[in-house]
Amino acid sequence: MQIVFWFGFAVCLLAAAVAKAAGSLEIPQHLRSTPLRSSNIYDEGRAGREVIARIRSGIYEGYPTQLCVDDLYRCDNGIFLPYKTEEDGKVSYAITISTQNWDNYPSEIQYEIIQGILGFLWGVSKQSHQPLLSYFATTPASSPLDFLSPSSVSMFAKFGLSGYLEGGKGRHSYGPNCWYNAVASIADTRSKYAASRKLTGGSWDKPRFMGPTEFRCHMRQFTAVETPAFGDIIRYYRAEPVYQGDAFGGEIHGAVFVGDDDSFRGDSSSADKVFLTKNGRSDLNFLIFHDMQGLDDLYKGGPENLKHFFRVNEGAAIVDPAVTEGTSACSGAYLIDRKNYKERLDCLAGRIDPPPGEGKSCYSYPENWLGDTDETAPQPEMKPFMLQAPPKARVPAYNVSG
Questions:
Q1: Which residues partner with 256 through β-bridges?
Q2: Cα within 13 Å of Cα(243), Cβ side
Q3: How many CB atoms lie within 10 A of CB 26?
Q4: CB within 8 A of 346, min separation 6: which ones?
Q5: What pLDDT digit, counting tens, does each position of 149-170 carry?
Q6: Which residues pair with 274 in a beta bridge?
Q7: Whole-model pTM?
Q8: Contacts of 363 (CB under 8 A, 6+ apart)
Q9: Are residues 274 and 33 in contact, defined by beta-carbon separation less than 8 angstroms?
Q10: Strand, coil or helix: what is 362?
């Protein structure tokens, strides 16, 4: 009996050693989350000063924001009457920010503008699905970011550096978006997760806007799965690479699954899936954790929109085509996106004029979208994923990806 026991024990030790040598990685799955604005990384004073500096620099020029987002009674004052609207019996207050008039706004208006922007970024108490700060329920606590790209750590809850951006300012800028962050956070070989999947594509350390054609190309190195595990990508998309409505090249949104949380809603009977996500491509928001229902509210849309989980294939070489010379399998897709967006970005940057014609703007570029010539390449087999229609979002809409 003892011989059998020690033999079995030795086999277990050997298996553990082999797994460790092979680069396997045990990642906790259960999270503890708190609303981002209630977390220990939120500093009201610092965040407010940052918003004021960004307003003065013109980043929020022409940006519409809600006032009194967490308490409409604060707007029960004659000074807010010009900004009041009523629709279907519901009262709201909103203002379009003018950089030039900032110093002339009454202090009450300035305060509510700042609070509206902070609510959009960090969340408000009345918001059903707020941005989150999530940690693994371990001792000592660890963050999902510990297992992802170092660039994800540096961009979490922080605005992108100016070198990451193209096009215009604020809502007219194009920077590290959902597709870039979804791919880079797991494909970067500096991350523990990439090592555990034996990925070989190299570093992803030059954050940038990623177009839909490139993202769709990278997804060919992923396999659809029924149940997500850490590092899997949730993908909202169309079956065909169309540019229509909320779909750009057939793609709508992508985010990285980091774990389940059954605690922060106070309802242990239903676990919420939490994702690392960049909700938009502009300089008006940053990388956050968000629960799946919040993402569904923003991106699931109508029945033509699909949603599946995808896992990167072990040993995949996901190379950043923006920093290599033709060595990435998606170099052609990257160049298609650059061609598609060049005139739009040049126009937003003021280098060229909008196309002629009534009602035309920089967003009228391009006149025709180029498609991927390799769209006939095999795609992962996917089973239908049915969802109930999501409730209408009760918060300001995020910028669309494209």
A1: 233, 276
A2: 16
A3: 8
A4: 352
A5: 999 999 999 998 889 999 999 9
A6: 259, 291
A7: 0.86
A8: 344
A9: yes
A10: helix
